[in-house]
Design brief:
Layout: E1 6-9, H1 25-40, H2 44-54, E2 58-59, E3 64-65, E4 70-71, E5 79-81, E6 86-87, E7 92-93, E8 96-98, E9 102-105, E10 108-110, E11 115-116, E12 121-122, E13 127-128, E14 133-134, E15 139-140, E16 149-151, E17 156-159
Parallel strand pairs: 2-5, 3-6, 4-7, 5-10, 6-11, 7-12, 10-13, 11-14, 12-15, 14-16
Antiparallel strand pairs: 1-9, 8-9, 16-17
Amino acid sequence: MGRNVERFKMEGPNALWQVYRTVSRFKAVRNFVAIQIARYCPSLPVKNAIYRRVLGMKVGRETAFALMVMVDVFFPEKIEVGDNCIIGYNSTLLTHEYLIGEYRIGKIIIGNSVMIGANTTVLPGVTIGDGAVVAAGSVVHRDVPAGAFVGGNPLQELRGSGPK
């Protein structure tokens, strides 16, 4: 099962070397500064306001981004997080991948009441369903069904979805 990403072929040097053909320098710098402020901000409402107003992310009510969460610097507007979620310490939400001959962009959609453990990486094009739990230190490289408990690298189901 593949991730839901758009692929763009590139000629010449690797795609990351050509990043400013795909993203403006102003946007990259503005986003970087806003993300660094939000990463260290102790106030959850202020942090969420930065994500919503400056970065264009969709962030639900009572959602908490822990200290040091790194959201995508180039395409943060492609991140949607539902209500009452926790994104754990030092986690990374990536909506882009720059490779040798191409780059990929995909939305990250996180449902309501999702718990993402510390030091987790969520890759582009992934949907995490309502009520899912992602164990700390995981790499989310595929969709996670609602209510599932998953973890690891490679990601595997630790407990089935459904009523608890």
